[in-house]
Each structure stands twice: as structure tokens, then as C-alpha cells.
Amino acid sequence: MSHRPLPARRSVLRGSLAASAALTLPTALGEAPAFALSGRPKAGWGVQAGDVTRDSGLVWVRSDRPARMVVETSATESFRNPRRWHGPLLGPGTDFTGTTRLHGLPSGEQIHYRVLLADPDDPRRTGEPVTGTFRTASDKRRDGVRFVWSGDLAGQGWGINPELGGYRIYQAMAALDPDFFICSGDNIYADGPLTETVALPDGRTWRNITTEEKAKVAETLAEFRGNFRYNLLDENLRAFNAQVPSIIQWDDHEVTNNWYPGEILGDTRYTEKNVDVLAARARRAFSEYFPISTLRRPDGRVYRVQHHGPLLDVFVLDMRTYRNANSPDDQPTDPQGILGREQLEWLKRELSRSRAVWKVIASDMPIGLVVPDTGDGKPNIEAVAQGDPGAPLGRELQIAELLRFIKHRRITGTVWLTADVHYTSAQHYQPSRAAFTDFEPFWEFVSGPLNAGAFPANTLDGTFGPDRVFLKAPTTANVSPAGGYQFFGEVDIDGGSGELTVRLREQDGTVLFTKVLQPGLVGQ
């Protein structure tokens, strides 16, 4: 690995945290911005960068009042001769958030940026700048790539606990100096209210920071926005966002547990029962609180491919928006499946076009793990596998079609990364063990949660021949973060050999499992 040393980055983070610390208490607790505020606009929620490529990136900010977003970039943190970018006017229509696209950036370089918020009526009046940094993807293979991934934040009643230092896992991920972070979904738990205290089995008490929007399930646009804003109260997350750009995907808890299009909820906590209405509000808040390149398209889609130089393409899936209804998943034909036909054809087309050494498929749900949906009392399936180890049925048919395509097109270097199940594991899929055999071997690595309840391992489905090579999971359900079992994964691609190393890590960064994969192979 030949990453450049970055001695100045920590001072950048200190500046970002200092700006965040300047929040007044009511704003820090999530109150809506007021229009009669005195002084200058403030960006106390920090900054984020996302969907960074070899020559571009998106920068996000939130103001405490109407303001014009201005971004300045520089090759150094001194900001001599900065390049200036004029962003949008931030107002109530986007909950005072905004994103500015930076383009024409040098490849493989550290980009320092600062966001200024200007008074719309007097551009000379600007608030204290908030700083961040990111690396653009390198055109040079020798520079290598390193990134981390995980998912599931503030779930099952476990929010920001200041007595434990908040979301400490972000400190461990930042210490690895990754090029970017993939969040594999469940960025919030809109269906998971928080209480101030929770009694733990060992007699201790868990204490949550709470806000009005987290006191009930999210139904209104304001409540969804408040859920996204809640996580930004954590200083570890704000510091991480200022240092590491993200690739964000969504799953179910951004809306409600195990949802699918067209669903009518039976959950008595909801007055709005139409999931499509809730999903539209959640998607709008999601698009306001994350810098995602495709959400500004007319179709507002989440799925996309992120090119990260000659070594890596990341294929970001959306297994939520286009799925069919959850069912026993045993139908002999299933044209819609979990991806929808249009997304599946897009994925096949983009995989065949990719010339990157490694093709990481960022999947918000696992392939061979049985994930049930018993919310309505029926034995329905939430993910892909349904527990029948025989020939593909239901949503497995779409995955079989994709795996067959990868084999016959001789597409090399595919690796699946996922989260969702709240433990960490490594599965190797092998046709010699499988009922469906027309595919090449591949690996699926599971990580998470970031800060949520941990759960026992799901059973494996033998259709694609998985072998669970590594597993760490609790034996009881909903173990709090105070009990451990919080995980993230690291991927390190060597610029010389092209080898891809996966490390599954605990919350403090301890390595639990390592697997080295060789480049240029169809299956391994």
C-alpha cells in the first residue's frame, strides 16, 4: 500500500470540531432554525463529502438559517489562492441543507475544502468556515485503495450514549485513514424511537441523548429529517464526515422495518399506513442529508456505480425500492425479484463494461443468509434466501441469473459486501456445494452494526453453496453496544500486487478475520 502521508489532516479535524462545538444548546438538541436569529449563519452540523471520483466530489452542509452555500478548495490547509464554488441557497425547502458539486479536481490528490455560509441579503456577512478534506481517486494503480464499510446506526433503542463516548466506532474507522466509507444501509432507524434510559441485563443503565423527533416512529417529513439530524449530534460522526467521504445506500429502516412498495402497514404505532407515502417522505429527507450523485436525477435513484481508478469499481445496489412484496419467496418464476428488471440489466451491463481489477458489489442485504419477515405473523422472507437448499426459487432466480452472467462473461474480481444482520461473518460460495451450479466461486463479507443491537447468526441456505468460514455473533438477541459485537470491515487493495485484503474488525479496530484475494480470477 502506498498511500501518501497526511500530517495535516488531524488539524483539519480539530478545526471542524471546534466549529461544531460553537453550537448553542437549543440548536444542538435539534430545534428547527429560526428566522429571527442574530449574528451570522452557522454550520454546526459539520460537513460531509460523498461520491468522490478521480476529478469530482459532492460537499454537503446544513445551516441554522437561510444562507448561501460557498465552498473553497485548496491543495493545502493554508487555503492560499483557493478555488471558489458558489452553491445553492439553503432554506426551509431542504431543511436548510445543501450540496455543491466540485469538478475538475486533480486525481489522486488530497483536497482541502471549507464551507462558508453567507447571509443572502449581505454576501459579505459569512459565518465561521467549517473545514474538511478528502482524496480524489488516483489514476495510478500503484497508489492502491483502502476503504471501510458497515451499516446499522442507532437501532433497537440504542442511540448516542455520552457515558460510553457516543459512536466510538467512527474513531477506529478514521484511524485507518480510508479513501472512503460505504454505509450499507440503515443509516437511521425511523421506526425505532429512543427513550432516555434503558435497563441492561447486567443491572447497568444505558442512557440515550434524545430529541423530539426520536420520541416516536417517523411519519412526517419533519420527523424523518429529525432522524437524520439526530446522528449528527455525535462528535465522532461529525469528525469522521470531515475526514472520510462516503458512499451511501439505503435499506429498510430509513422508512420502516422490512418495507416493500405498495405495503399497507398493520403497525398500530402509525397513523399513516401507506408505506409509499412514508417512503416518499423518507427519500426526500435522505436526499437532503447525504451527498449522493444520482439522487438529483429525474428518477432519483440510489443505485449507481462509483469508479475509483484502475483498481476498483463499486456497484451500489438498491434492494428496497424495486422489490416485489415480501412472501414465502418460493414462486417458480419471479421477473421483478429484489432488484427489479431495470436495475438488474443495469448491473449486468455495468459489470461487463468495467475494466477495474476489482468489482465490489455493495449489497444492502445478504445473498445466502435466511432473513425472515414475520411482522404480519406469516413466514415471509425479507432478503433473498428462503431456506430451501434446492434449485433457485423466488428472488433467488434473479441472483442466479446475475451469477450465471458473471461466469459466462468471464467477469473477474467480483466481491460482495453487505451488512443488515447485525453480526460479522465471511461466506464462501462454491458450485460444488450448491444446488445451482452455473456460477464461479465468490466471497460475501458481512459487517455491522455501527451502533445498534447485535443478534445471533442467521441460518444459511444451500442453493448457492455457502460455507461460513468465519463468524462472530452473540447468542442472545439485541445485545446493546455496551455488550460489544459492533463491527466494521476494511478492504485494502495493494497497488503493486493488486491483491485485495479483507479484514473484519471490532469496534475498537481489533482484527478478527483476514482474507487475501488474488486479482484477475473469475472465481476463487
UniProtKB/TrEMBL annotation:
Domain called Phospholipase D N-terminal: residue spans: 46-136
Q: What keywords are assigned to this protein?
A: Hydrolase, Signal
Q: Name one Pfam family in it.
A: PhoD_N
A single Gene Ontology molecular function, please? alkaline phosphatase activity
Query: Does the keyword field hold Cell division?
Result: no
- Would the keyword Chaperone turn up in this protein's UniProt record? no
Q: What EC identifiers does the entry list?
A: 3.1.3.1
Q: Which InterPro entries would you find in this protein's record?
A: Metallo-depent_PP-like (IPR029052), PhoD-like_MPP (IPR018946), PhoD-like_sf (IPR038607), PhoD_N (IPR032093), Phospholipid_Metab_Enz (IPR052900), TAT_signal (IPR006311)
Q: Which residues form the PhoD-like phosphatase metallophosphatase domain?
A: 153-504
Q: What class of enzyme is it?
A: hydrolase
Q: Which residues form the signal peptide?
A: 1-21
**What protein name applies here?**
Alkaline phosphatase D
Q: What is the organism field in this record? A: Streptomyces chartreusis NRRL 3882
Q: What is the lineage of its organism?
A: Bacteria, Bacillati, Actinomycetota, Actinomycetes, Kitasatosporales
